[in-house]
Queue: 4 jobs
Job 1
Amino acid sequence: MHSTFSRRHLLKLGALAGVALSPAGLFAVEPFKRTGPSRLQLSLAAYSFREYFKDVSHDRKLKTDESKHIDLFQFIDYCAEQRCPAAELTSYYFPKETDDAFLLKLRRHCFVHGIAISGGSVGNTFTNPPGDKRDEQVRYVKQWVDHYAVLGAPHIRVFAGTAPRGVSKADATKHCISALEECADYAGKRGIFLGIENHGGIVAEPDDLLEIIRTVKSPWVGINLDSANFHTDEPYRDFEKCAPYAVNVQLKADMRPRDGKSQRADLPRLVKILRAANYQGYVALEYESEEDPWKAVPGLLKQMAELFSK
């Protein structure tokens, strides 16, 4: 009686979490089952102003007007000025020697300005075979899990990567799943989701991304769904296929189908797809178009806010 109850109880918990329990007791990611109506919460990705932040991950010199250079605190100020309720804080723009004192100062600044931290993002690769390179990437992601936990961020965007030279795509995928599961186990203990982004490499096609998502064993993994990163024949269809697995969404102003020119994104259509999938969570504007972000971002934020309120 007790064992039957326990198994049923675990299966119920798995269903509520959007995961399925295998006979071995491991979780496999399923489409998230969300009660209530779709709710889209606006955020702005710091990466939108990448030409104005000092990118400590590359230590590059900015070519833009120095009077417009900003740090993370000024970015939060900007979000407040634009009445954007949340911010996605990209790891590239933190100090090289980031410590808890800095993170707590930033967290306080966000709270005082009424800005929620919707999540963070790191620049990793999970396709390396077992060895030093693989271990280094796993340590890197875990380090940022610790940092974002101090900030109170609920989600981190991660990459899959490309297959290294001499490694087949199938093996690279297995390596990715293994590294993702290890990092997700670490992140889950801190209450943080890892969202693997559709970002080229071994996840350039939606079916390859979904294969990883459906195979990985973790209740703390989903898709960081980027509207512009499917350079496929039907990017809107592929966006729709992945929407039920999304734990974070990034919308861009433009899209580029396979063998096609960049074209303005149909934001109402993308929002309609998210609502049909009953997505509930953050949708961050990640601006990458050619026009000056200082001019373009305010209008896009306003448009997104109006679409989300309908």
Job 2
Amino acid sequence: MRIVVFGAGGRAGRRVAALAAARGHEVTPVVRDRSRHSTNGLAGAVDGDVTDVANVGKLVAGQDAVIMTAVRLDMPSVEFYSAAARALVAARPRRLVAVGIGTMLEVQPDVAVHDSPDFPAEHRAFSLGHVAQLDAFRAAPADVDWVVLAPPPVVLSDEPFSGGYMTGGSALLPGTAFSYGDLAAALVDEVEAPRHHRELVAVAR
């Protein structure tokens, strides 16, 4: 398959690009500025801005799938994720798999982790950015086949793929240990053999 990976310079994106390439796919890793990243593991990396509609359209054209792992901390989270989601939807990808965040998952019906009374206020804005991304995907035309995978709301480890993971719905799963290797496997698996469509899906192990 031909797969474009936005945010390929990050901890998740780099692993996604490497795994997809190792599985024999033709990967286009996209970073905002190649000069800021080591090219190790990013063969064929190109500069790109996931919030730029025209730029995203050119990068997505002809691709079989898009994996979105990009993040920006130099601008409001809601602003970034909303703009990125709109640009991705406008490109009308055949398959769109994006990273969510565990704090957007529900601890009880209609109550997200970030709405819990003891949730740190300083982290809530970032979580709401992912909610904005999800809302934009939900408003996408019916022919845009997207899924958002949300790992547990803990700091991910740098361990390789553990060999297995489980998926659920929009509720928080009991597993806590999760690595970037696990996340990469879940993302690439959803590109190769789509099991979830137009929904938020919790992943854990």
Job 3
Amino acid sequence: MQLPTAASLQRTDEICKEIEEIVKKTPGVQYVSTVVGFSLLSTVTSTYNGFMFVTLAPWDERKKPEEKLLSIFRTHQ
């Protein structure tokens, strides 16, 4: 995610934590790992960027339609 230019690292961290909580409650999501203060796209360290790695539960544990990849993706667009 990218906040407005010059947003503080603390503000970026707060927003990331809010997003983490939403993603963690999504059916089919097992883990969320967040990096704050770095842009994976530009490989630049900044206070207003962050990104997440979202790990889904194993396929054999995601049997409900809402736990499938496309459903999870559509939920958070």
Job 4
Amino acid sequence: MTEPELTVARGDDYVATLEFSRPPDNFFSLDLIIQIADACEELAAGRQTRAIVLCSAGRIFCAGADFAGGPRLSDDGGLHLYDAAQRLFEQPLPIVAAIQGAAIGGGLGLAMAADFRVASAHARFGANFALLGIHQGFALSVTLPAVIGQQPALEMLYTGRRVHGEEAVGLGLADVLAEPGEERDVAHAFAARIAAAAPLAVRSIRATMRAGLAEQVRSAMERERSEQERLMQTTDWREGLAAVRDRRPANFTGE
């Protein structure tokens, strides 16, 4: 029997934990993002969950989409991964992400969909799209500058460099620095403090503070998807994938 990609655990402190597992790198898929969005919406529809911890199994939080392996980003009916991702920004419950390792590419985008991020010094955040010859995605065009500011976001996007846990906290990319191995416990305690507040008030405050975000995300994802599809036809994209596969610096030609 295959293990489920997503498990949901409801606590008696009004905190639910969503743990996803797609070893070894926790590459996401369209199906996984749908499962996460479905779970968030189901939890929000009840009265027993007031905050969510999003985490993953293994040593890597999420390495994004497996471009080299040919990711399934759309289904036969034309539903795209970004259509499902949009739902994460529309659901009403606060989310605290526990980042125990690398959150790279679309994995960073998934982490940024949360309200807060808890990470250890071992965490690595990277928007490596330019190093692959492609445009950023998963609404990072909106979420990254909103959280860390325009100039730091541009630097991360243009260079693709990785930011480790302590620097991430300094930038605001992560909100709390936990000891290695304690990321999930610290995230749960953070979520429990949110869940202890008046739930109707928290939802109302969150809706005000994130007003317009879903619309911005939708517009950004349309642009991101269009640019990704265009750039996937270029020589630089093929070179970027080959360089990652061969573990060497890419030789981009601008073609």
